Amino acid sequence: EPEVTQTPSHQVTQMGQEVILRCVPISNHLYFYWYRQILGQKVEFLVSFYNNEISEKSEIFDDQFSVERPDGSNFTLKIRSTKLEDSAMYFCASRDLAYEQYFGPGTRLTVT
Amino acid sequence: QQQVKQSPQSLIVQKGGIPIINCAYENTAFDYFPWYQQFPGKGPALLIAIRPDVSEKKEGRFTISFNKSAKQFSLHIMDSQPGDSATYFCAASKWNAGNMLTFGGGTRLMVKP
Hints:
The complex is a heterodimer. By secondary structure, chain A is mostly beta strands.
């Protein structure tokens, strides 16, 4: 069964450093998403991406964040200058033309 | 307007019991209501979803009930098992270019043997 994969599973970084989180969506999917989940809290939408551009973003997704689909398979989330409050699980999701979004296993980002 | 409120925050049932988790929404533009199951350290896994043109949908032991006029929907787990112990999230979205999911706060379910 096809699945969304994410790397790394855990990333530790120092405050102010740049991080790139990587995702490989399900191969025939067209829409891509990043969500985050602070420990013990609900899942929050960050950004959606379709046809090589951002289609929607939340107020969390400020100028420190960017997304890219550098090739036909990868989808990345970059945080330019990490803050302590960026520590969270980051989930990538993808969907085809239907509504169903399928989530990856997540990357735990720890900012020290 | 964009919030989805979920209750209860936690729930303990005996094996074989029928836990019920409830969600309420405000935005009448929402037209897709999925439930996700999440185990510790894992990503949310799509369990079952409903559109507002039906009032109930059943898949295996999982049933969604939907009340459009009350703007509420709920998840019932029949014959619950210890393996169902997880956190359950309801969500909602509306059809647009982004189709972002708005999640409820989650319900931590424990099914005792």
